[in-house]
Amino acid sequence: MIDDEIVKPSKMIYPNAVLKFKVNPIWRSFKIIEIPKSRVGAKLVNTLIIETTTQADLDLIHQIAQTNRENRSQGLKGRPTKKDRRDLDDWTN
Question: Quick one: CA dihedral 32, 36, 39, 41, positive or negative?
Fold first, then answer.
């Protein structure tokens, strides 16, 4: 979204525009300060934009990510070895 309008990826942007991206369950928003003349590295992008997402929303994303990490099923640690497969076959037969 650019300035609360759903747009196609080819839409031209301009300084002072507000970009919004859906990151479930919130919309993250960024204000464009300046548009560079040519491509810039990822480290320099922070000098060209300001994040305007509320701190409450950022805390919510952090809380959800932490909950997902804690609830993740660990499962097996990699593929079973040949011996593990043979033991499983003996156990099931």
Answer: negative
- Each residue's pLDDT tens digit, 14-56: 999 999 999 889 999 999 999 999 999 999 999 999 999 999 9
Provide the residue count of the chain: 93
- Is pTM beyond 0.90? Reply is no
Q: What's the CA angle centered on 87, arms 86 and 90, to 5 degrees?
A: 85
Is position 84 within any domain? no
Cα 86 to Cα 25, 37, 78, 82, 89, distances in angstroms: 45, 62, 16, 6, 5
- Residues spanned by the domain of 4: 1-71
Q: How many domains does the chain have?
A: 1
CATH number at residue 54: 3.10.290.10
What single DSSP character describes residue 2? B
**Is residue 34 situated within a structural domain?**
yes
Pairing of strands 26-32, 18-23: antiparallel
